[in-house]
Amino acid sequence: MDFNGIQPDLVTLNILLNCFCQLGQLNFAFSVLAIILKLGYQPDTITMTTLMKGMCVSGHIKKALDFHDDVISKGFQLDQISYGILIDGLCKNGETTAALQLLRKIELLRVKPNEVMYNTVIHSLCKDKLLSDAFLLYSEMIVKKISPDVVTYTNLIFGFCVVGQFKEAVGLLNEMLLKNLSPNVFTFNTLIGALSKEGETRKVRNVLAVMIKQGVKPDVVTYTSLIDGYFLVNEVNMAKYVFNTFAQRGVIPEVNSYSVMINGLCKNKMVDEAVNLFKEMYLKNISPHIVTYNSLIDGLCKSGRISDVWDLLDEMHDRGQPPNVITYNSILDALFKNHQVDKAIELLAKIKDQGIQIDLYTYTVFVDGLCKNGRIKDALEIYQDLLIKGYQFNVTMYTVMIDGLCKEGLFDEALSLKSKMEDNGCNPNCITYTTLIHALSKNGMNEKAVKLHREMIARGLSYE
C-alpha cells in the first residue's frame, strides 16, 4: 500500500494491530498505535480494546489494567466488549477478585454490566469453589434485571458439582426447565460427569432421560461419563454394554472412551480384554495418550505381566509419548512385588537420568518395596537421605518405614519413629496403629500393644 501511495485508514491499521496482538507481538502492536497517531487518526474503542485483549492474551494483566486506567484518564469511553475482554483476561489469569472489583467499578464509568461479564466472573468463582459469592452474583443479576442464561446456570451447576452439592445442582437444572431455558449438551454433560464420578448411576440415568426428553442428543462425552460411573460401582457388564452399543447410538468412540474402558477393565482384572481394546485403537487410527498407556501398564503390572510392559515402554518412546512418573510408579511397585529389587534400583537410576521429577509417592513405593524385600538398611539410607534433602513426609511414608522396622524386629526404633512423626505434626492413622499393635502383640509385647490400642481409641480411630 505504501509503495502504491495508498494511505491505510484506521480500519486497516486496527486489523494490522489486531494481528500483532493475536500473535503476542505487543511491541509491533504498539508501533501500529504510534503510526495511527502519526497519521493524525484518533484511536477508537476498537483500537484500545484490541490492545487490552493483546495484553491479556499475553498474560500481561497488570499492564492491561494500567493501560485501562491511562485510557480512561485521557477521556476515552470503553464499551461492554472492552470490559468483557478485560474481565475475561483477569479471570483466566486467576485474578477473580480483581475481576469482581472491575465489575463493580464499570457502572461508575457509565457502562452497564451484561450477562457475559457476570457469567465470566461466576464461572471463575465456581472454579475457585466460592459458591456463596457466585450465587450472590446470580441473585444480583436478577435484581438488576439481567436475565441469567444457559451459560449462567451451567456455570452454577458446575460449581455445585465441584463442591459435591448435587441436590442443588439438580435443583438448578429443574429451575432452568421451569423457566423454559433449554439446557445444552454441555449443561447435561457437566451434571452427568460429576454424578458418574460419585457412582450415582441411578441419578445419571434420570438426568439422561431428561436430556433425551428435552431433545438434546447425548454425545461421546455423555456416554463415556456413564461408562466411568458404571465401572466405579462395579457394574462392568453395563459399562461394556454401553461401549459396545456406541455405533447404534450414532456415537463414535474417541481416545477418552477407550482410556476409560481400558482403565475399568484393568481395575477389574480383565487385562486381556483391555489389551484387545488397545489393539482395536490402532485398527481405528486412534492414538493412545499417556492416560491410556498408564492404565494398561498398571493393569499388566498388577497381573504380573512385566515382560509386556517393557514392550509398551519402547512403543511409548517410539511414538513420542514418553513415560511419566505415574508410569514408572506402577512398574516399580510391580518389580518389588515380584522380588526384582535390583531391576527396581536400576529403573530408579534410569528415571533420574531422564530428568523426570520424582515425587514423594515414588519414594514411598521404593522404600516400601525395599522393606518388604528385607532390604531395611537400604530403605533407611533413602529415608535419611530424603530427610537431609528437606522432604516433608506424610503418614503413608512414616507408616511404611514403621512397618519395615517392625518386620525386622526393631520395635523400639518403630515406636521412636511414631513419636518423631507426631513431633513433626503428622498424626498416625488407623493403619499406623494397626501395624504397630499387630507387630507388638505377635511378639509378646502385650502391654505396649494395649497402650497403643487405648491411645488409638482415644483419638477416635477404629480398626480397618
Automatic annotation (TrEMBL):
Gene3D superfamilies reported in the protein's UniProt record: Tetratricopeptide repeat domain
Pfam families, per the entry: PPR_1 (PF12854), PPR_2 (PF13041)
Entry keyword Repeat: yes
Entry superkingdom: Eukaryota
PPR repeat ranges per the UniProt record: 9-43, 44-78, 79-113, 114-148, 149-183, 184-218, 219-253, 254-288, 289-323, 324-358, 359-393, 394-428, 429-463
Keywords in alphabetical order: Repeat
InterPro entries on file: PPR_rpt, TPR-like_helical_dom_sf
PANTHER family linked: PENTATRICOPEPTIDE REPEAT-CONTAINING PROTEIN 3, MITOCHONDRIAL
Family per similarity comment: Belongs to the PPR family. P subfamily.
Protein name per its UniProtKB record: Pentacotripeptide-repeat region of PRORP domain-containing protein
Species whose genome carries this gene: Trifolium subterraneum (Subterranean clover)
